[in-house]
Structures are given as structure tokens and as C-alpha cells.
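Example record

The entry below shows one chain as it appears in the dataset: sequence first, then C-alpha cells.
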Amino acid sequence: MSVMNTSRRPRLISVTAAAAVAALGATLLSACSSGDSGSGDGKLDVTASFYPMAYLAEQIGGTHVNVTGLTKPGQEPHDLEISARQTSKVERSDLILYLKGLQPSVDEVVAQSSVKNKVDAATLTKMEEHGDEVGGHAAAHEEHAGHEDHDHEAGGQDPHIWLDPVKYAEVAKGVGKAMEKADPGHAAAYRKNTTTLLGKLGKLDTAYAEGLRNTRTKVFITTHAAFGYLAERYGLTEEAISGLNPESEPSPARIKDLHAMAKADGVSTVFYETLVSDKTAKTVAGDSGLRTDVLDPLEGITDKSRGKDYLQVMESNLRALQKALGARS
């Protein structure tokens, strides 16, 4: 398996965000030490970095938490720049839930925060290294794909753990325990809600395993390699047009290689995602006579999402994969 860095090229925290952190630091620390934190309604105030983290907090916390998401619906999580107001909100939280390595600006603010309860989802499950091409085709096609496509994101861990229901469930367990620790008075409710959520994720895992067990092909093409964990979990092979950085342009050699691979493996579909342009996907699909469809990496829910929450969109993704891979009942 190839190696990578992170989901996108790391972005340095903006000058504005850095200045906001520095300027607010002393004031916020003083406020925190004087007990002026939270919403004052007796609920656990949770700040979540982006949608998959907010979903866990809401499902497990239920009526006992206030959840604030730092990434707005429709906003690319990797492009987030923390405002002074958001920095203040982070500092006034009872618990911060984030995924280190995915959003550099969040990592910076969390590192400088004095909040006691900080939960890094990356520490709650085993992270793995996935490369620009995920699955069995990487080695076979590497000599044709061009050196540039394999070096631009080398040497790191794949952050897309939420797209694997099993790994996401492991994260959910850790989040539940963190909430129990931060708010012991409602520990029983958090345990009950965690158990309920784990049951739903278990059913989702079963649906994927059974729904993708018998398919005409095991290969699918995406605009970027967000689905490495999912592919590995269910015995599939993901081929990414632009590797793990969808902002990079694929080389002509890579496109040519994808055309040949699609023909050899009976690929029918090129998948794109809701928060990134479908231009590249349509170009590759058109040149190969393939169709395009959405495979949502679930970095946020918008009115364009095929579902109102994590479970519904994951179920839509399963249907899309079954259609593209030629699933047989």
C-alpha cells in the first residue's frame, strides 16, 4: 500500500487566525479560570471541529449537551480558518472534539487552548497509511502513473476514519467515555446513547458487508482517495484520479492509466463529491465513456446531500456503490 501525508496538503494557520489566538489568549484564560465558561444552562458545551465529530457529540450527548460545529455546512473542512469569535467559543467549551491532522487551523487553536477535556479522534482508533492509489492496482500501475502523482502526498496517515463504520464505532466508544468523564452526572445517559449508536453503526457495517459481497467488479474510481478505509474494510479497490489532494491536477499519464484500468476491470462510474468540483470527474468519465455519480465523503451535510445525517448519506453511498459495482442479490 502506498503512503500519504494527509487528506489535503497541510495549510498553515492564517495570519488572522494566529493573531486572534494571541490577542485573545490572556483574556480567555482569565475568563476560564474565573469559572466564566460554557453556556450557563447546565449542559455540557461541546465544540466539534467538523460534521462527523459533531454527529457523534449530538448522538451520544442527546439532550445533555450543546454542540457547536466550527465548520459550516457546505464549507470545505480543510480550508477552515478560525475566527476570533470561534477561538473564544473553543476556549469556553467543556469538551473539544476534533481530528488532528485534518484541519491545521483547528489543531493550532486546540493546542493553545486551556480547555481540560480535549478529544483527538485519531487516538481512538488505529490510523493507517493509504496512498494516492488505494488497493491492489497501485503497484501494477505505478510505473505508468508518473512519478509526480506518487510523491506529492507521501508519508502520513489517512484521516478518513469516519467512512469506515467499524472505525467510526471505535471513535464513538472513546467519545462516550470522554463525555462520561467530563460530565459524570449524566454518565448513564451517555453510556445508553453510545450503545444505541453502536447498534446503528453495527447494522450499517452489516449492510455494507452483505451489499458489497457479490459484485461484478471490485474497482471504483473517485476524484480523490477518501475511501481507503471503506475499500479495505469491504474488499474493494479505490482508484483516485488526483490522489489525496483533489486540488492537484492528474498527469496525462495517470488519466491514460485510468482509462486502461477502467476498461480492463469493467469500471462503469467515476465518482465525485458534493463539496468539490465535478469537472475532473466528468472529463475522465467522458473520455472513457463512463457515467458519473456522487460518493459523498461526509465532511458536511448540505441541501445537496443525499440524506439528512451520517447514516442516511452512508446508506446512499452504499446504493451508489452497489449500482456502480454491479451488485448481485
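Notes for this example: The CA atoms of residues 269 and 324 lie 6 Å apart. The radius of gyration is 21 Å.
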